[in-house]
């Protein structure tokens, strides 16, 4: 397989939704909310795609300050291409865009909890999330 990895800042909403759905990450992303998806793309600092025969088979989307931390907000690989190193390579390509001291942070999809320790991530016990529908008390 000759997969190419490229920085893709102008990823179309259609292509992004398509790869999210083919990876099953679409189950946990607002794929029916085009305004939100457009904002996710427009405001990302890094978008890397994995492309095979002009078809996107993977994507990594990140928000970062490039020096201290990088939130890897989406890592999606087409389900039929998983377990071939594409996700790992996408993460490596994101890291190439970052400063030497910049750490990667992510929230794992439930099905990927076992994946991240295998490639070197350590679990952090105190991540917190405030949903947009919740009030700050």
Explain briefly what this protein structure is.
By secondary structure, the chain is an alpha+beta fold. It has helices at residues 13-23, 34-42, 86-96, 115-118; strands spanning 4-7, 46-52, 55-64, 69-77, 103-105.
Descriptive overview:
The protein is α+β, with helices and mostly antiparallel strands. Helix content is 26%, strand content 24%. It is built from 4 helices and 5 strands. The protein has helices spanning 13-23, 34-42, 86-96, 115-118; strands at 4-7, 46-52, 55-64, 69-77, 103-105. The protein has a 5-stranded mixed β-sheet with strand order 1-2-3-4-5. Strand 4, helix 3 (86-96) and strand 5 form a beta-alpha-beta unit. The longest helix is centred in the N-terminal third of the chain and has 11 residues, at 13-23. It is globular and about 50 Å long. The mean pLDDT is 95.
Largest sheet: 5 strands, mixed
Category from helices, strands and their pairing: alpha+beta
> How are strands sequenced across the largest beta sheet?
1-2-3-4-5
Radius of gyration: 15 Å
Order of helices and strands: EHHEEEHEH
**Average pLDDT:** 95
Distance between the termini: 52 Å
How many strand segments?
A: 5
Q: Low-confidence runs (pLDDT<50, min 5 residues)?
A: none
Molecular shape: globular
Number of helices: 4
Strand content: 15-25%
> What proportion of the residues is helical, as a percent range?
25-40%
Summary tags:
single chain, 137 residues, alpha+beta, five-stranded mixed sheet, 4 helices, 26% helix, globular
């Amino acid at each position: 397989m000759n997969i190419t990895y490229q920085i893709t800042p102008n990823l179309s909403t259609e292509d992004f939704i398509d790869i999210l759905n083919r990876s099953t990450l679409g189950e946990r992303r607002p794929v029916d909310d085009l305004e939100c998806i457009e904002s996710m793309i427009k405001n990302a600092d890094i978008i890397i795609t994995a492309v095979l025969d002009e078809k996107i088979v993977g994507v990594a989307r990140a928000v970062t300050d490039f020096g201290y931390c990088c939130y890897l907000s989406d890592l999606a690989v087409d389900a039929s291409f998983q377990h071939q190193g594409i996700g790992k390579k996408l993460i490596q390509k994101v890291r190439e865009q970052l400063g030497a001291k910049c750490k990667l942070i992510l929230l794992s999809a439930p099905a990927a909890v076992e994946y991240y320790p295998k490639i070197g991530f350590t679990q952090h016990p105190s991540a917190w999330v405030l949903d947009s529908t919740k009030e700050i008390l």
